[in-house]
Amino acid sequence: MMNSFNKRLKLMTTSAALALILAGAPQAYAATPADTLVLAWAIDDIITLDPGEAFEISTAEVTANTYNKLVALDPADTSKVIGDLAESWTISDDGLTYTFKLKSGLKFASGNPITAADVAYSFERAVKLDKSPAFLLTQFGLTGDNVTEKAKATDDMTFVLTVDKAYAPSFVLNVLTSTVASVVDKVLVTEKAKAMTPTAEYKYDTDFGNEFLKTGYAGSGPFKIREWRANEVVVLERNDNFYGEKAKLARVIYRYMKESAGQRLALENGDIDVARNLEPGDFEAVAKKEGIATTSAPKGTLYYFSLNQKNPNLAKPEVIEAFKYLVDYDALGETLIKGIGSIHQTFLPSGQLGALEDKPYKLDVAKAKELLAKAGLADGFTVTMDVRNTQPVTGIAENVQQTLAQAGIKLEIIPGDGKQTLTKFRARQHDIYIGQWGSDYFDPNSNAETFTFNPDNSDEGKNKTLAWRNAWDPTELSAKTQAALLEKDTAKRAAIYEDLQRQVLATGPFVMIFQQTEIAGYSDKVKDYKLGPSFDTNFVYTVSKD
Amino acid sequence: MTDVSNRTEARRSSARASALAISLLKFILTVLTTYLGLLAVTFFIGRVVPIDPALAIVGDRAPAHVVERVREELGLNLPLYEQFFIYIRQVLSGDFGTSVLTTNPVLTDIARVFPATMELATVGTIIGVLFGVPLGILAAVKRGSIADQIVRVIGLIGYSVPIFWLGLLALLFFYAKLNWVAYPGRVDIVYEYSFTPVTGFFLLDAAMQQQWDVLWDLFRHIILPGALLGYFSLAYISRMTRSFMLNELSQEYIVAARAKGLSETRIIWFHALRNAAVPLITVIALSYAGLLEGSVLTETIFSWPGLGLYITNSLQNADMNAVLGGTIVIGSVFIAINLLSDVLYRMLDPRTRSR
Fold first, then answer.
1. Which residue is closest to B302 within chain A, CA to CA?
2. What is the pTM of this model?
């Protein structure tokens, strides 16, 4: 008996050891299946998939591939807006009424037909829910009380939108290409909607399917959403009811992976097809690997740091100018942002109407010292910068810390989690904040508004734009920004934005550093993988695999 | 005479009953205060952290009025102690709130992720016991020898090297360099949609459904984090086994057994180990609880979709309902396992039974 016990124990330990060794047996492991595209991407910003609520970068890409809008940006030429569900549209002479005719025979993924009533419902629910992106629609004068009248179906194929001012048509149409204008399946959503008790804040007796759509799907795009698990995965499946060319792949999986090094490993080992968050070093390395291809596209996202005007030192015009001379743009371009961005010093990203390419600033310590002396700060001063714990901002902050020191400015870096630094920034409690800004929609007004519009600089101000967050009060520019919205002549409109950019470049408390270039490394088995010009034009339905 | 003895017997049993009631009461009180402390500490840490939970709900770019509205809805404008009482009331009614991140009720989320953590901890403990106990015995029997030294060094490394560092090294070597094991995660995406979990313990599910390729894939995923946790468990178990065995081997009954001429193997495995097994069970149970709790780092490194990763993610997103819910569950498991090992200990060792 003792012997058998002993033997059994021996057997158990050896088999465990054997299992360990077996696990290590090298084997040719099956790569991702041919009908499935696996992308690794930092999708931790997704908090909802409801197009009426979503306002995040990753979600915009997911909804762009799964929902349709009336109109869309032309991926080949971003200055043009083309019809998506809309066949054609007309604008009344007074510039207030937009009439859209729908294409015929359209269907949702559910099989329900798409009619103008669905479009009207989509506008109605977005405005009444009043979630983060609702302002994109309410800025045209739509409110919970008037939306059914101002955005309505006059027949099955006709949708009419009435705006409150004669805005530049390009502005209105550009806004209508954003996620919030996605068309949802009215029949399906109404069915899934949850009854609510009206309160003072929320006057409606339904949630307009918000709870269902947070993780659910009611669209008509080339893919449908099968599943989203927060910080894990988003799974898309081909929608056979899509009106256009059917997607070539049966399934697209966005896998949550944050680290560049991890993505590089997984790409090289064939566990993923596309890596979306590679840092310059890893990007260069995979580009040299056999079997891996790369692609890139300039995006509308800008990296900048801003000086809070509540800090008396930072409010001095000479100090603001000195900071612009204390960034080693060339060195940054050669190292930290190599391949993932290009130096850009104005607030409109290249590609948008009126964007200026002026780059007057270079690292010039002597000039900066002169300016500081003029401001009475010849001996420098100490100041803090709130920095999110991610690249490339951490690296840039450290680099700027060194160049500032050359002029006697002691920069203390306060590292923090994204939400932590943002909480402080939103409350105007920072000295200097380094961050990134992407346009909400592909129109110059999006950035012009945030960088130059601040009608009420008090702490209670309602428009908490970036100008407000930095307590900057550009009274004259605020008015100009608003005027640009009503300018119908595109050339004149562009001229206004050029002027605004020059003024911010000269006196604004924003030190613009670079414009992001989005990059991806992918397996060369993947065909036709392209990154679009904006964050919601990275389409995957054209992709196929060998 | 019989009457008298009956009376003393009755008195004794009533004394025993009241002693039992007191210890039960003590136990309940301890559990309650532990919970309250757990809740209070986690809650206040969560609120003191300079992150705005409203931002987590509305996203980075929401307009100011939306952020304000959500802050009011969450009751973040109320005094801190009031928020705490509201939360306690909510928890007592069995409602852990909704997770901001996943939009599910926190309990639903935990029910989904907890089996993954248990599976990993179970594999870790099995590895720890399989290797730790024999190594501990070896070290005790060959006390002072080179074998003993080696076992102690192995244990020391397991004790003192940070798990994330070892985890990264292991990944770099076995995954990146050799490609022997699978990429971090629990199961390959290829299988994720061709396999239906029943119990939530994937290894068991795949075996029951006779999906051998899935089982192999699961194995390739669990082996590295499992072995790593197993190593940590081994370090603890082997050290304790060694000391329990040394203690037993110096007892008189061992001397007596030797004098009777029993073989050394028989003495070690049947006499000494049997007695050392009693405290060892507590050690193994504690180690198991420790692995459940210590899974936070391992799961983060290996993208293991369990409770640890869930809590880490929630913390990064200021999703306090989820963090609190997860903490309570881990606390409960700890209390339950402690209790269980205590009961087992009493059952197995007659000396600890109250007379």
1. A262
2. 0.85
